[in-house]
Prior knowledge:
The protein contains five helices and twelve strands. It is of the alpha/beta class. The strands form three sheets. A seven-stranded mixed sheet has the order 2-1-3-4-12-11-10. The two termini are 16 Å apart. The site of glutamine (GLN) has 12 residues, from helix 4. This is Pyridoxal 5'-phosphate synthase subunit PdxT. Belongs to the glutaminase PdxT/SNO family.
Amino acid sequence: xxxxxxxxxxxxxxxxxxxxxxxxxxxxxxxxxxxxxxxxxxxxxxxxxxxxxxxxxxxxxxxxxxxxxxxxxxxxxxxxxxxxxxxxxxxxxxxxxxxxxxxxxxxxxxxxxxxxxxxxxxxxxxxxxxxxxxxxxxxxxxxxxxxxxxxxxxxxxxxxxxxxxxxxxxxxxxxxxxxxxxxxxxxxxxxxxxx
Length: 195
Ligand code: GLN
């Protein structure tokens, strides 16, 4: 059975772990560098990107996470996770993991819309629109040529994929819909058991 790690330094860790188990994955909570050896994929949850960025350095996880992602391990970043994976954060000199060819805007939905829900169609996810929960959400401002846009809210890109790197500006772990986690687990399966 595939083992998917959930970065366990801050944020919605338990909810991601529950969703992953419900779609049939084994889950490893990742807090120490050695945990990275035991996983076939990694979820980087929402929370606060500056804090998570500091904590992954403090816990000695930064280099190991980057190396595994560069080596092809599937990664799924939600909300703050999307910011951590981006090559550039607009208006800031800080870059965290910088492995995805995206420019992102933090807190782009403004204070008056701290959180909201919207049903959005997501390409690659069959069936009804997906219930997207946004909490002080970022969005993707621009993408490189290798990045596929999977969903938009108005003009704003809120889900994208580049090879084995998947991101959403919303929190799929906070709705009862398991399809995004099933989609990610499928990416992990295809990578760890190539046909
Ligand atoms: N806007 C937050 C940040 O910059 C992310 C919010 C979230 O993950 N819910 O980190």
